[in-house]
Write a structure and sequence with these properties.
Number of domains: 5
Distance between the termini: 125 Å
Helix content: 25-40%
Structural class: alpha+beta
Strand content: 15-25%
Length: about 550
């Protein structure tokens, strides 16, 4: 009865395929073939041939030859029994052993068959056509990740009544390194697909054994992309969804059916901790390989999932790594640390403000790459602001920081760009019930005499004018800003006009002479007389001339 229970451990009867691959992997096989013929599944692999202990392990419970080797996948002595979900009497030919298993546990010697040297042959007479159909479908649709984390098996072939194909793994990991590229090719009658991974490995010592743990990033066209699967692997994918966008593997202790993992197990706790450290460390390698960019950051665990302790372990480790290393791409193509960076709300700001400007205004050195926006990368943006504490600079924050001293150091080309960017910032010049305008009375407009003035005076009257040919006592904008079609729009939006000459006489000339105490130089007096005559002569209507005469009578 115990064998029957084990045979039905698995929710999917085709799970035995993974158990057979596992046995081949543990036997250090390089390839394994599956063929369905005459209602039988014929399996061959070139792993270590059977010995007496192997026969004993597959015909008894809890007596696996692998239970003392923690690096091997099968440790319960129950894996092979999963074949009884699809067959009643498996036959095995390996080395000098030729036998079938009856009643789950009884090995019975059978007639030998010819085999290539060092080849193990397993024949499973299938129970019915439904089983055969399910096996055929499973073989055709094996996940590419099946081969990814295996150390030995690098090729799986299959032949069914309707389909044939194979899966091949090609590793490009140099000796004495723990990382490199792995290519998985899937080919069948109809199509071929290749998936590239960048794999980083490390080793954890537990019970005097070195256990390999791995993280694998899917690669497409030279960039890290979201993995098609997010299941945690214990050599093969389990049913544990990591909620991550990359793949992880560690030799966790699992339940006997290998479908779930008790994460509170002490060994498993250690593996989770070390796996979290490996993911954090992988960012350093990813960066050196030129794969660290905004797309990669967006694939990292950047959302909190408090109820998932495994996920949160990875989340916290990655967060600590990002906070303490130069892992965030900047707008200059370099990388920098969290405490040196600012996030811009608009692209105009990143183009406008240099590293020197950021240092002067906020004691920071770089903008984060401008592709991070609320529209394109909302989750990453929130993560940078809320979890990493990076300040997002808006035009309003920038407007509050700048002053006349800051602007005086800028050349006209920069100011053209500045005024152009203000075209869409009308709110900065308006008062609201709750707060006063930020730029309305701030000296940001460069004048003809190279000084700066505010757009409006203390009485909220527009006090800036377009320049004229004659010298004017009004505050007139430097001509270059009106000649540029981009910055010109800003001034047009504020209805900047030419100064009224009569108003100029009234405000700047008349006021000097209306008192008895006049203290002006002859040159200034001469200039004023010239201005009065000049304006008087340009007045066409008599009433306008009378206004000037009446003003100085």
């Amino acid at each position: 009865n115990s064998h029957e229970i084990i045979a039905n451990f698995y929710s999917d009867p085709t799970h035995f395929i993974f158990e057979i691959i596992q046995n081949a992997e543990d036997a250090k096989a390089e390839f394994i073939n599956f063929e369905i013929s005459n209602n039988e599944l014929i399996i061959n692999h070139n792993g270590k041939i059977f010995d007496y202990d192997d026969i004993d392990s597959i015909t008894t419970i809890g007596n696996s030859t692998k239970k003392d080797d923690i690096n091997k996948i099968g440790k319960f002595g129950a894996g092979f029994k999963s074949v009884f979900a699809v067959t009643d009497t498996p036959r095995i030919h390996s080395g000098k052993f030729h036998f079938k298993i009856e009643d789950f546990i009884v090995p019975v010697e059978i007639q030998p068959i010819k085999l290539q040297e060092k080849l193990t042959n397993i024949i499973l007479p299938l129970k019915n056509n439904e089983v055969k159909a399910r096996i055929s479908k499973k073989l055709k649709n094996l996940e590419m990740e099946t081969l990814l984390f295996l150390n030995n098996v690098s090729e799986i072939k299959y032949q069914t009544e309707k389909n044939s194909g194979h899966y091949i793994k090609d590793r490009n990991i140099k000796e004495n390194t723990t990382f490199g590229k792995v290519f998985i090719v899937s080919e069948n009658n109809y199509d071929e697909a290749t998936q590239e991974y960048f794999v980083i490995n490390n080793y954890v010592e537990i019970e005097n054994k070195n256990l390999k743990i791995s993280v694998a990033y899917a690669i497409d066209n030279g960039k890290v992309v979201r993995s098609s699967s997010s299941y945690l692997s214990v050599f093969f994918p389990t049913k544990i969804d990591t909620n991550l966008n990359f793949l992880l593997q560690a030799p966790y202790r699992t339940t006997p059916n290998r479908e779930t993992i008790p994460f509170d197990n002490q060994q498993n706790k250690i593996l989770t901790e070390r796996l979290s450290e490996l993911v954090a460390y992988s960012l350093n390698i990813i960066k050196k390989e030129g794969l660290l960019n905004i797309d990669l950051l967006n694939l990292l665990p950047i959302e909190k999932l408090e109820r998932n302790s495994f996920y949160m372990s990875i989340y916290n480790s990655v967060k600590d790594a990002i906070k303490s290393n130069s892992y965030i791409p900047t707008n200059t193509g370099s990388y920098n640390t969290v405490d040196n960076l600012l996030l811009s709300r608009s692209k105009e700001l990143t183009n406008l403000l240099s590293s020197q400007d950021l240092e002067q205004l906020w004691k920071k050195t770089n903008w984060i790459e401008a592709s991070i926006t609320q529209d394109k990368t909302p989750k990453l943006r929130d993560y940078l602001i809320k979890e990493l504490g990076i300040d997002e600079i808006t035009f309003e924050k920038f407007a509050r920081k700048i002053d006349e001293d800051f602007l005086q150091k800028k050349d006209d080309e920069w100011l053209i760009q500045f005024y152009s960017s203000l075209t869409e910032q009308d709110a900065l010049f308006r008062d609201s019930p709750n707060k006063k305008s930020i730029l309305k009375h701030k000296k940001i407009i460069k004048l003809d005499d190279e000084s700066f003035a505010s757009l409006y005076d203390e009485n909220d009257r527009l006090q800036i004018y377009k320049p004229i040919k004659e010298k004017s006592d009004f505050k007139t904008i430097k001509k270059i800003f009106l000649e540029n079609k981009h910055s010109q729009i800003f001034f047009e939006n504020h209805v900047i006009t030419y100064p009224d000459k009569f108003s100029e006489l009234k405000e700047f000339v008349y006021t000097k002479y209306k008192t008895s105490d006049i203290n002006i130089s002859f040159e200034e007096y001469e200039h004023d007389i010239y201005k009065i005559i000049s304006i008087y002569s340009t007045r066409e209507k008599d009433e306008k001339k009378k206004e000037i005469i009446n003003l100085f009578q």
